[in-house]
Amino acid sequence: MNRLLLESGNYLDSSGNVLAGDVGIEDGKILFIGSAPKGWQSDQIIDCRDKLTIPGFVNAHTHAAMTLLRSYADDMALMDWLQQKVWPAEANLTGEDVYWGSQLAIAEMLASGTTAFADMYFFMDRVAQACVETGIRASLSRGLIAAGASEENLRLSENEQLFIDYHGAENGRISVMLGPHAPYTCPPECMKKVVALSERIGAEIHVHLAETQWEVNQSQKKYGKSPVSLLDELGVFERGTLAAHCVWVSPQDIEILAAKKVRVAHNPSSNLKLASGAAPVTAMLEAGVIVGLGTDGATSNNNLDMLEEVRLASFLQKLNRMDPTVLPARQILSLSTQGGAAALGQAESLGRIEVGCNADLAVFDMTAPHWYPRHDLASMLAYSANSADVLYTLVDGRILYSKGEFMTLDIERVKAEAAARGLRLAK
Ligand code: NI
After folding, report:
1. What pLDDT score does 2 carry?
2. Which terminus of the chain has fewer CB atoms gathered within 10 Å of its CB, N or C?
């Protein structure tokens, strides 16, 4: 399908306002908004009356295949959770598990209006395969954890191969970063190797950073500096960096993040559930830090619903600052779309409904009771909409999800495989 018309609907513009108008798509890109060029005819029309089209959500940090461990280990402290439950279960993961876990995650994301995600995990070639097949957009990185600090154990070459095989694949729909897991699992000697490889092949870096107070205390004790200062000194931020969490950052840390144009992925559900803390999102935005929103993995959330992150991110900042005016509806929607696009390093082509941008879109149905009355549609989207309202999800102008049906994956098979594999891993 080359030409698609979203007719007679409403759309969220890049300032966060909802306007009425048609959106025309050609060859995967937004060709026009408003009236069609003379003589232009669509191959397919979606009737968008009583519907709201938005740029698809960009999930700026997740571990897609962790859907397999959903509800397996809840209500635990982060390090106990990792050491006692998650890491032992993950030790038994196969590539086939990761493939089906990723398919499940992709189904969940498409059904809730997410069109792109930044992923860090293992067997990433199988995640890439799932992305190629399903049509979703993704930035993939191999989680690099030092076991004995040797390069072989670090799996750097695996991440390099992923970059060679998939960076820019599918007409740019798939990109690849290097994924040093965190300063506490990828110590300075390893981090230096990652930076050197990143310089050599031109890859950006995706890392967990300053997630818990424990991490900051440990870094101060071991290196006499914060995790942010440490990575800055190691040159990690020279490469173009996506940093997940940044919960425990000082004003000096925030200055570094802003100066080095580090893109932060804020994960409110995960930070709340693991009681990691409230990231100073408002302070980071005031300092000019680029911020996107993420779900983190389904084990620490426990879903991949970006609309929930939108609400929670806003409410958490309001409570944290004891100020209901911070992170208002339009700004938080912008973080979930444009902020996420910037987090993935794709601000130019993604996250906005503008002519020339990729047609990565979600269409919300507005007929449910919670869409009435309509004083302010942007506010309704941020605070009262439900991701079950999503009717269509498109990536590169291709309809991947349509009224409950998945066009590019076999959902019954995906659910059955994920259910069986999840239970096996938990044994
Ligand atoms: Ni994470």
Report:
1. 86
2. C
**Span from the CA of 197 to the centroid of ligand 1 (angstroms):** 22
Cα of 374 vs centre of ligand 1, distance in Å, is: 37
CB atoms within 10 A of CB 20: 10
| Residue 123 alpha carbon to ligand 1 centre in Å | 16
The rounded Å distance from CA 116 to ligand 1 centre is 16
Task: Give residue-wise pLDDT tens across range 314-372.
Answer: 999 999 999 999 999 999 999 999 999 999 999 999 999 999 999 999 999 999 999 99
> Residue 399: beta bridge partners?
394
What is the second-level CATH architecture of the domain 57-343?
Answer: Alpha-Beta Barrel (3.20)
Structure tokens at 237: 């931020």
Cβ-contact 62, 296 below 8 angstroms: yes
Classify domain 3-55+352-406 by CATH architecture: Roll (2.30)
Segments making up each domain of the chain, as ranges: 3-55+352-406, 57-343
Going from the Cα of 30 to the center of ligand 1, the distance in angstroms, rounded, reads 32
What distance in Å separates the CA atoms of residue 39 and residue 36, rounded to the nearest whole number? Answer: 8
Q: How far is the CA of 392 from the centre of ligand 1 (A)?
A: 28
- pLDDT tens digits, 118-149: 999 999 999 999 999 999 999 999 999 986 54
